[in-house]
């Protein structure tokens, strides 16, 4: 087996060793419950509150607007169900998009069963929502707009500033699932009209199982987990002290190096994209060419099954994905690729490669070389491709 090349950083990232070192004392030395009264516990309480301040300052928020959770899915659930619960007297209508993560989509479907009405906005061929369609979808009884900051499959970055302005103009709350974007693209809560924002540490070289919900002061949601008084009595449960400390450290490092890292990752990504598009025929790049996460490349190879591609890449030590980690194992094509207008047979041949700070040009070249060979081999076994080539040569005659 060759050396592993990990290109599935949208599914999860490696823990930064510096982050691990910051967490370690809160596993081994100070394991205290931050809510206890003795001096031993004061230190872990302080660590949690410092982490809150760090994260708040990185996004132009106030510390009391940051609520620690167990990750992106929980933050999304809380934001959406919380608004449904708190504001159903105003109305029972929500607006989201067809390309959201399942943590948002399935939560909206759950609310539909509870009597809510949800508008799922279309996106264009690049995955962008239309601001005009958004504005037209707003009604008297709309209580929440939930639109992701950046898409986890195709990397497209949505017009968050403009969406926030529309939401504000109509007095509707705006939640954004920023799990893929937070710490990868700049964002300031004091400059954007975002009322609720979800983030998750394991998508930016932090630990798994910890995230946060930014909840703008004045947005009065009830408790999501009932029990103790942690997180201002809104999210009960003993704080995940090492996780929270690790998340803040990871965020600090990521924001500090965001510009140089983005530039470096995008350069490797662009090289990979250029080679794949130039050297493998009948291939398309999915997602917006410029308004895109720096580490995302998503392709469709015609006449190929994405699953076979993944297995053959795996045999070469390359970790990739056909879309979202959450849909792998299912035979349905990605809802995101269908939403950007791809027919089923093309959406089936998708491949998502998501790079990290550690991905090198040499690795990108190795992956491009491997892909070229694998796609050729798979196509040589495809009767559809054989037919296609035959027809092509006939029309050329
Ligand atoms: C990964 C991801 C989630 C889920 O986050 P977890 O911390 O794994 O629960 C939600 N939304 C998006 C866009 C994601 O990429």
What would your notes on this structure say?
The protein has 397 residues and is α/β, with parallel strands linked by helices. Helices cover 43% and strands 13% of the residues. The chain is built from 15 helices and 12 strands. The strands form 3 sheets. It has a 7-stranded mixed beta sheet with strand order 2-8-7-6-5-3-4, with helices on both faces. It is globular and about 85 Å long. The chain starts with a strand and ends with a helix. The mean pLDDT is 96. The structure holds pyridoxal-5'-phosphate (PLP). Residues 71-73, 76, 101, 103, 148, 152, 177, 179-180, 200, 203, 211 line the site of pyridoxal-5'-phosphate (PLP).
Indicate the percent of residues in helices.
40-55%
Average pLDDT, all residues = 96
Largest sheet: 7 strands, mixed
Which structural category fits the helices and strands? Answer: alpha/beta
* Uncertain residue ranges: none
Record field, number of beta strands: 12
How many DSSP helices? 15
The gist of it:
This protein is an alpha/beta fold and 397 residues long.
Question: Which terms would index this structure?
Answer:
globular; 397 residues; binds pyridoxal-5'-phosphate; seven-stranded mixed beta sheet; alpha/beta; 43% helix; single chain
